[in-house]
């Protein structure tokens, strides 16, 4: 949910909002508790996508060994560290200096050599990544087209991109904004419903950047299962993208 970066896309107020959460990012019962619940669902999708795209063994522990991964809008590294465990050489980018400081500290304590960068993706000159991820980020940037173009520019030929974002529906407004923020499940000011991106809009953004979008999977919630992958795209969805060429 961190605000990420690209050419002319950083919103200072968004970076400041997420920067204030940096110290609490790794607390599973703190302000980022929902991210801790969401992360295993994302990772399950990413692992399946990696195995399918790179033809790796689903039983292997390090399917990303020998590959470079970039997480954009990485926050304090909640996804970067699992990607490192999967064998990747990981780079994380975020707009908030506080998040990068927290990410570096946590990675050092956990023994991970992750390259964390603070700044604007479009200005960092990063390229050639086999895997590019950006989770709950595109809804926070000022220029979505420029942001997606910067993501595409970082992706290697033959690489895989994975994005997730809330869908702009009546249900997402009621549950994710008016509901979750009102009762404290998500910090107030995290979501701006009008900035949510529909699957059709994301398809068009990716298409314009020379990318082909895969079939989206919903991230749904139920009392019995909690957060889980689903065919229901109404709240949140996750999707792959690859280069057309």
TrEMBL record:
Pathway: Cofactor biosynthesis; ubiquinone biosynthesis. This is Ubiquinone biosynthesis O-methyltransferase. Belongs to the methyltransferase superfamily. UbiG/COQ3 family. S-adenosyl-L-methionine binds at residues 42, 73, 94, 135. GO terms for molecular function: 2-polyprenyl-6-hydroxyphenol methylase activity; 3-demethylubiquinol 3-O-methyltransferase activity; lyase activity; polyprenyldihydroxybenzoate methyltransferase activity. The lineage of its organism: Bacteria, Pseudomonadati, Pseudomonadota, Alphaproteobacteria, Sphingomonadales. Pfam families: Methyltransf_23. One of its GO terms (biological process) is methylation. O-methyltransferase that catalyzes the 2 O-methylation steps in the ubiquinone biosynthetic pathway. The keyword Transmembrane helix does not apply. It catalyses: a 3-demethylubiquinol + S-adenosyl-L-methionine = a ubiquinol + S-adenosyl-L-homocysteine + H(+); a 3-(all-trans-polyprenyl)benzene-1,2-diol + S-adenosyl-L-methionine = a 2-methoxy-6-(all-trans-polyprenyl)phenol + S-adenosyl-L-homocysteine + H(+). Keywords: Methyltransferase, S-adenosyl-L-methionine, Transferase, Ubiquinone, Ubiquinone biosynthesis. Its EC number is 2.1.1.222, 2.1.1.64. InterPro entries: Fumarate_lyase_CS, SAM-dependent_MTases_sf, UbiG_MeTrfase. CDD domains: AdoMet_MTases. It comes from the Bacteria.
